[in-house]
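My current task is to audit a protein record that another person submitted. Thanks in advance; the entry in question is below:
***
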Amino acid sequence: MHRIKIGLVILSILLTGATFTSCSKKEEVKRVPLATKKISVETIQLKKETLPQYMAFPGRVTPKIRIILSAKAPGYVTSVEVREGDSVEAGDILIRLDDKDLRARLKGLGEKKAALKREKAAYAQDLSYAKATFKRIEALFNEEAATKDEFDRAKSAYLAAKERVRAYEAQIKAVDQEIEAVKNELTYRIIRAPHSGQVTKRFVDPGAFVGPGSPLLQVSSREAGFWFEARIPESLFGKIKAGDTAFLAISGEEGRRGYPQKVNLTRIVPQIDPGTRTFKVKVDLGNRNGLEGGMFGTIWLDGGSLSGLLIPESVIVKRGGIKGVYTAEDDKTIHFQVITVGGCYYRIEEDLFPCTYSEGARTSTTERLLLIASGLSPGMRVCSSRLQEIREGMSLE
């Protein structure tokens, strides 16, 4: 009985072995060595490039024109229509001052003018009568039908009436001038925006009493445009000048997303701040949309250069968590080459601009170019297409 069981076990092992051997042979027949496979891919030949280096400095957007609006006449602040940060258009009412006294004065002057006009109208009638009388007596006198005394009395009465009317006209004119002056003063009680822009500072609140010259609001001009200003260390004074190329990114600028733009330095302010030991540089931003005073940004100034190899980020692949590229040897054999990355660049209008490399991070839709620290050398060819299909040992068609 035991011999029968042992025999069955041996037979089962033999059959299993035969099956495994048969399957292995079938697989060996189907497998083709990778080295014999060919693939058509695009390649990039590596060459050294001169890579610029930049020094980064923070800065901010400032309006070219800031106006401090002040009171021209004394009075209490009745209302402040804006807050700091509000945008305003030219002519908008910003602050109202109490004008009850002026309006009462204006009313009184209006009543005085009306009374003078009534009195003038009465004397105008007298003038008309005196003139007619004088003309009649004058005609009689010329015909020797009236005496010289009658002529003189008629003439005097006419001239006196005429002078009284002129006196009232002068008084009415003086009242008109007073009314105009009060109306002008009323305009001082309403503070309007001199131009479109932004309220950058508010000095008063409703209820405050202000005198002539008291500051009320600070308003920046949008039409005049903006500067980007940055403070640069004293050690660079004299080494940079107006017209030098730089790169500038402004955080949150509409349509630009903080992406660096090539600019030229507009002004170098030749004065060292004794407290910070820095001087100021300016870039003219014009009045393009999306800019507001106070926006922060970064400017990059020339800091020398170095030479190195750059490859597009898209050619990098990972195998087993290891970063590398596929290179094509002189015999067209493809191999996986491990690399290390030492930095990152953008190409902006034929210029290279360094960026901060962080794997997986993107700050722009523009492809990043990675600086090779090790693993590749000039003249090598790197595969740049069909990367998911390539395998170690394949060869180029």
